[in-house]
Structure formats: C-alpha cells, structure tokens
Amino acid sequence: MCGPYTLTVCTEHPGHVPVHGGPALHVPEGLDALASDGTVIVPGYLEPNPPSAEVTSALARTAARGSRMVSICTGAFALAAAGLLDDRRATTHWLYAPALAREYPRVKVRPQELYVDEGQVLTSGGVTAGLDLRLHLVRRDHGARLLVTAPHRTGGQAPFMDPPVRPAPSERASVYEWALRNLHRPLTVDQLADQAGLSRRTLIRRFHADAGLPPMRWLLDARLARARELMESTDLTMEAVGRRCGLGTPANFRTLFRTHVGIPIPRHVRLTGSGEPMTASARSPHRRGSSPPAGGPSP
C-alpha cells in the first residue's frame, strides 16, 4: 500500500522478468491480476514489437470492464496492438512516434506531447514524461493538494526531438537530401515531385510511408529542426536564421516555432542552454554553444 494507491505488478509469465538496465524482477502475479485493477499501467519495453495475443486480449478485456488504461513510453505499442488507441490521440517517445504512426495508422500520434489524456486511455512520451503523466493522474484523482511539485511541465517533447526522419542514403533518399540542402527556398510539393521523378500523388504516398508525414509537414519540421540547430550553435540573428531555414520574417518564425514546437523561443533557449537569436544586426562577439537537456532524449 502506498498512500491512496495499491500497486500490483503482473506479467504474462510469472517468475523472474528481465529488466533493461537493472536486475531481474520477481513477479508472482499473472495476467489474471488485471481483473481487479482500476488503473492498468503498461511500461515501456526495449523492442516495441506486438505483444502476444494473450496480452492484447487481456488488455482489451480489462478496458472493456472500464479500467483506466495508461502507457509509458513504448508501452503505447501494446495498447495500440490491443486496439485501445484506435481513433484516439496518443503519444510515445518521439524516437518511436513514426513507427507507431506507420504500424497503427488509426492512431492519431502526437509526438510533441509529454502526455495525452483521452479520458479512459492515457499515454506518455519517454520515461521522464511518464512522471508527468503520473503526476497528472494524482491531480485528476485527488486534486493538487497531494502534490509537492508543479503538476505540469511545459514544453512537451518537441524541444528534444531529432530532425525529421529520412531513409538511409540511397536513390530513394535523394529527394530528402535535396530538400534539406534547399530549405532556404520556398519549396512546393510539385517541386519535390519533380526532383524525385514521381507524380505528386506518388510522392505524397512515399513521404507517408517513409516518414509518417505529408511532404509539407515534413518540410516544416525540417525547417524548424535546422532553426533549432542554428540557434544552438551560431550567433546568427533572428532574420538570418529565418532566411536560411525558409521560415520568413522574425515574426513568422516566432509564430511557427511556438505553434509547432509548442513553446516560445525564449523558453526553448532556457531548456536547451542555447543563446536566443537577436533581431536586427546586433550580434554577440562570441560563438554560443549548446548543452544537452538533462536526461538526454528521455522526454
């Protein structure tokens, strides 16, 4: 018993369960333990392959009885395999978000979110974001009176996300590389299709298959990723960053950054330890460096 909650750990095959980065756990309870749970939390696992039919069936039955279903990190793949994320918004670690969208197209994947609350079903990003989700559950169940920390961390996963996915070097990847070399230009879907030697419709299908995104959204993510890189490693002005990345005026740059990264540029600066790009022609005489967010890619 721990405060207002009782914790029971269960597994498909009771006994010693290997744990990545630590000693094996002895878990005596099997899937039958799910029958009495009010909340089921599926933790992340190293290889997010579909679980067995026994596990997915148990999760589906538990949800049908009204239990609250929660996943941490790649645990979202188990909920998706059980059909519990169909037509719902959901998140997972940003590194695995394209795979979740590709393998379960009915899931409305939101990789930028720390966690997503869809009522009965809740999902979180990485392990650190799982802490945010669990604090959210405590606040939802008992109000903020039990919390000794802020119940919500702003910023989401977006400030820590890698540049957009592209295939390994090959003829198939040439259009992605070309687009990345030409981010300063006002590119269109038709230009990308011409460069790839494909019809517009085939190009759009190719982008969805490769990156899980339509071409123009992939391109916007690439522009914003390049902008983050420049902000963290150069002394370029706001105008120069926007121009090099094809993001337009400083005002447009700020709006797009806040809308799609989820936080204003000054907040990103504080999270990443980078310097904020300056307006007009003012420049610092020193090159700014960057320091990684605490915990690496864990959000």
TrEMBL record:
Task: Read off the PROSITE patterns from this record.
Answer: HTH_ARAC_FAMILY_2 (PS01124)
Q: Which organism is it from?
A: Nonomuraea endophytica
* Coiled-coil parts of chain: none
Among Pfam families, the record links this protein to: DJ-1_PfpI, HTH_18
Which keywords accompany this UniProt record? Transcription, Transcription regulation
InterPro entries in alphabetical order: Class_I_gatase-like, DJ-1/PfpI, Homeodomain-like_sf, HTH_AraC, INH-QAR
- Locate the HTH araC/xylS-type domain: which residues? 173-271
What are the boundaries of the region Disordered? 268-299
Name of this protein: Transcriptional regulator GlxA family with amidase domain
Q: Name one GO molecular function term.
A: DNA-binding transcription factor activity
